[in-house]
Every structure is written in C-alpha cells, then in structure tokens.
Design brief:
The structure holds two protein chains of two kinds. Chain A is an all-alpha fold. Chain A has helices spanning 3-31, 47-54, 56-88, 92-107, 110-123, 130-155, 159-166, 171-182, 184-199, 203-208, 216-221, 232-264. Chain A has a single domain (53-239), classed as MetI-like (MetI-like fold), CATH 1.10.3720. In chain A, α1 crosses α12, α2 (47-54) crosses α12 and α7 runs antiparallel to α8 (171-182). Helix content of chain B is 71%, strand content 0%. Classes of the chains: A mainly alpha, B mainly alpha. Chains A and B meet through α1, α3, α4, α5 and α6 of A and α1, α3, α4, α5 and α6 of B.
Chain lengths: 265, 271
C-alpha cells in the first residue's frame, strides 16, 4: 500500500484514538489541577492524590471497589475455568446451547441484568449490600472467563486428559496437572477482563447494592454536581489507568518471552 | 472427557436462577400488582400497558432508537476502517495498538462522561485554546459521548474477524481483476459479517439503554428508555410500569440476540 492510499485510514484511526482518549487525558489533567472548579487550570498540584486517601467516604468506596474486584475475579476465574472444561466436554449440540446461555449476560444491556439481579436478590434471604454486589459481579464475570478459556481448550489434544487418567492420575489431578497448565493464558486473559469489568462497573452495582454499600461508580453517581464530589476520584482514576498500562506492558513482555522460549524449543 | 460433563450442572442451575427466573419475574410484574419486597396475594392489572402509550415513554423510545442507531452508524464508519487498518499492521505493532484501543474502556465510564460534560459547557478548560463549545442538551453532545464510550465495542469484534481473515483471498480477488472497491465489497465485507453483527449489537444495545450518559450530556433534557426504567425502579417505585417497559425492551434484545447467535453460535467474536 502506498502512503497516499493509506492516509485516510491513518487519519480515521488517529481520530478514533483521539475521541476515546480525550476524556482520559482530561481526567488526568483535572487530577493535577489545583483549581476547585473544572473549567480553569490554575497550577500543577498533587493535592488530589492526597485527598483521595483523606476523604473517608471516597476512600471507603475505593477499598470496596478493589475488594469486590479481587474477590469476584478470583471466584469467577476458578468457577469459569471449571465450567469451560465442563462445557468443552459436552456434545456439540449441548455445547452450543450452553454457550448461548453463557453469552446472554455478555450481550444483555447492563440495565436489564441489573434489574433482573435486583429482583432475584429481593426474593432470596440475603440483605442488599456487599454480598449482593459480589454475587452480581461474579455473575457478569464468569461468562467472560468461559469465553476466553474455551478457545484454549479447543486447541488442546483431547487425548491428553484420558492419557493422564490411564497413567494413574485422579480426575482432579488430570485437570490440575494437564489441562490447567495448557489453558493458563486463557485464564489470565479471562481474569484480566473480569477484573477490569468489575473495577469500573456502575449500572449493575447500582441496582444490586441497595443503600449503604458504595463502590467508586456509585459514589460518583450520587455526588455528580454536588459539593461532596471530591476531585480525589480523578486522581484515583488516573492511578488505575497507569496501573493497567503497567500490567499490560508487563504481561506483553512475559508473553513475548513465552513466545521466544517456545520458538527456541 | 465425558465424565467432566457434570461440571456444567451447577452453572446451568446458577444461570437459570439468575437469568431465566428474573425474566419470568419481570413478565409477571408487568401484568400484576405483585409487591416484590413483600410477597402477598396479587391480582392481574392492565395499568402496565398504559405505560407504553404515555407520551413521555413514547418520546423516550423514539430518542433511544434514533440516538442509538445514529451512534452505531458513526461507530461503524469510524470503527471499520480503524479495525481494518490495525488488523493489517505488523504482528508486534497491532497487538499493542489494539490493546491500547481497548484500554479506555477500563477507565471509569461515569468519569469519562463527566469529562465530556465539562468540555461541552461554554465555560470549559478548552477556553485555554480559545475554544468554547455550547453543546449540553444537544443530540451532538450525546452522540459524541456515545461514540467515545462505545467505539471500542464496535472495533474489537471487527478487528478479531479481520485479523483472522486469509489474506490470500484478497490477493486472489485482485489477481482476478477486481478493483479495490470490488474486493472490499465482495470479499472483505462479507467475510467479516459475523464481526459486523457482533460489533453493531454490542454498540446498539448499550447506547439504546444508557441512562447516565444522556442524563449528564443532555442536562436532563433528553430522556432515553434507560432513564425511564431507572426512574420507575429506583426513584418512583413504579415496578409494574418499569417491568412493562423492560419487557418491551427485552423483545428488541431477544430479536438482536437471535441475530448474533445465527452468525456466531459460540460467541467467538464477543471478546
């Protein structure tokens, strides 16, 4: 392709990056802006990074968010992996049906999932709060783990598992020692998606948390345009962006090393 | 491996309880006066149907359809060339760039909406560059916001099908005398159809049901169907009306879901 032919594509792609990154850059700018108001930039300041820890309600919302994200990711990754192994062993027709069921929460708009969960939880003998939010996050995370693990299982030689059993492994050992190591990359990808879905979820959390238990998104929604909206949340979001970028760079380096080692064999 | 099938049983039960049961519950709530928080005797009512003829609700539905279709079209027009460009880059570069493209999704959506909101007021940080926008309350503001939020959802499925596409087909088409345009319309586009379907639906549904985004970027002026549902369930406790509108919405969702399943049975283009 000549550069001239390419240039409209380059322009559109650049515009696409611009329109999705602009709000993030604006948030970063606000996070180091000493001004109280968002319409002027006074001077560079890190005070909101301190404020983040000093506003008790914001700090509690941040710890709630991280706690829910870690717990739901851990549980969803384990449950999702085993479920994917189960789905993989089904007959083709049942597998397709299970995958259709699995993909309902992925496609369903958050507001429908949120209301659905809220109604079911109000029937169950559990009170709204951390538990219901955690269950909801596990609910929307598992399908993503299944979707990332299943393709890895398809690449796996189906005889490996039976061979492990023939050689004296128990069923659990065969899964743990043979299947899990081969699908590790799918599990990591699934866990990453689950974590990032959980950490910035608003709609489903909003409908399933009841009063009292807030994550960062609910904290934001209940304070937009009010005095109690602390700009510490801009600092928090900026830190999250940097940590995710760092994690990605790290994982791509590990991934590359993995590739190189494979090629050396 | 057959003995592993039993593992799917708990998941099946879990999904039935959390997907099927609430769907039936919403259906029941839409035609009865059942009090979900205090279960007791209930009777059938028809007030729910009246909701669907209220001018406010009809306007919200029209707004939802108009804005989500426009946002999806814009996202497609930007997302397809972007996905095409990224998918045809060298391996090392494209993985990095597509990851960077999805990254903003992982930053808090409400904050990104607030960031746009501040820019759309006449008095904004853009004044530093001599720019002053006055867009709050316009469709343009909502469409820019939706494009910014949902463009990655459109681009990712497109990228994943375009990336797997066999390049020799395109060369074959050109060797056989097709122009670039013909090759695109007759080879590339049809082969990427499953990605187009997933991308369109992954953009259409969230923009149709958004409620925080239109609330902020329209200054509360433009109501979408999501705003009505949130209001009924969370603020005015009109569960019967909210359930009826949700059912109307679910009919649309089920049709769209069936289209996705038709093109992509196992959801390979969804992530």
């Amino acid at each position: 392709m000549s550069l001239l032919k390419k240039s409209p594509l380059v322009m559109i792609t650049s515009f696409a990056f611009f329109i999705i990154y602009l709000p993030i850059l604006i948030i970063m700018l606000f996070s180091v802006n000493s001004a109280e108001k968002d319409y002027s930039f006074d001077s560079f300041s890190l005070k909101w990074y301190v404020e983040m820890f000093e506003d008790p309600q914001l700090f509690e919302a941040i710890t709630n968010t991280l706690m829910i994200a870690f717990l739901s990711t851990l549980i969803a990754t384990i449950v999702g992996t085993f479920t994917a192994i189960g789905i993989h062993s089904l007959s083709k027709k049942n597998r397709t049906n299970m995958m259709i069921l699995n993909n309902i929460p992925v496609i369903n708009p958050d507001i429908v999932s949120g209301i659905s969960l809220m109604l079911v939880f109000s029937l169950l003998p559990i009170s709204f709060g951390m538990n219901t939010m955690l269950l909801a996050h596990i609910f929307f995370s598992i399908p993503f783990v299944v979707l990332t693990v299943l393709p890895k299982l398809k690449e796996l030689d189906p005889n490996l598992y039976d061979a492990a059993l023939d050689l004296g492994c128990s069923r659990f050992q065969a899964i743990y020692k043979v299947i899990i190591p081969s699908i590790k990359m799918g599990m990591i990808a699934g866990a990453l998606i689950a974590f990032t879905m959980s950490i910035d979820d608003f709609v489903i959390s909003y409908f399933t948390s009841g009063q009292g238990f807030q994550n960062v998104s609910i904290w934001i929604y209940s304070r937009i345009g009010r005095k109690s909206f602390s700009k510490g949340v801009y600092a928090y979001n900026t830190l999250v962006v940097f940590v995710t970028v760092g994690m990605l760079l790290l994982s791509s380096r590990i991934g590359k090393r993995h590739l190189i080692r494979k090629e050396e064999r | 491996m057959r003995r592993l099938r039993i593992i799917t049983l708990p998941y099946l039960v879990w999904m039935v309880v959390l997907v099927l049961v609430p769907t039936l519950l919403i259906l029941l709530l839409s035609v009865t006066n059942l009090d979900i928080y205090n279960i007791g005797p209930f009777s059938f009512v028809t007030e729910g149907f009246e909701e669907l003829t209220k001018p406010l609700v009809i306007t919200a539905m029209k707004n939802s359809v108009r804005l989500s279709l426009l946002a999806t079209l814009i996202c497609f027009l930007i997302g397809y060339p972007t996905a095409y460009f990224l998918a045809n880059l060298k391996t090392s570069k494209k993985t990095m760039l597509i990851t960077l493209f999805i990254l903003p999704v992982w930053s808090n959506m409400l904050l990104r909406i607030i960031a746009w909101e501040t820019l759309f007021f006449p008095n904004s940080i853009l004044n530093m560059f001599g720019i002053s926008l006055n867009l709050i309350g316009t469709d343009v503001a909502i469409l820019i916001g939706m494009t910014s939020m949902y463009l990655p959802f459109m681009t990712l499925p497109l990228y994943s099908v375009l990336e797997k596409m066999d390049h020799s087909l395109i060369e074959a088409s050109k060797d056989l005398g097709a122009s670039n345009m013909q090759t695109f319309l007759k080879v590339t586009l049809p082969l990427s159809l499953s990605g187009v379907v997933s991308g369109v639906i992954m953009t259409l549904l969230p923009s149709m049901t958004a409620f925080a985004l239109p609330e902020r970027l329209s200054g509360g002026k433009t109501l979408l169907i999501g705003n009505i549902i949130e209001d009924y369930f969370m603020k005015t406790s009109n569960i019967n009306g909210g359930a009826m509108i949700s059912i109307a919405l679910m009919v649309v969702i089920i049709v769209l879901f069936m289209v996705v399943v038709h093109f992509d049975k196992e959801g390979e283009t969804l992530i």
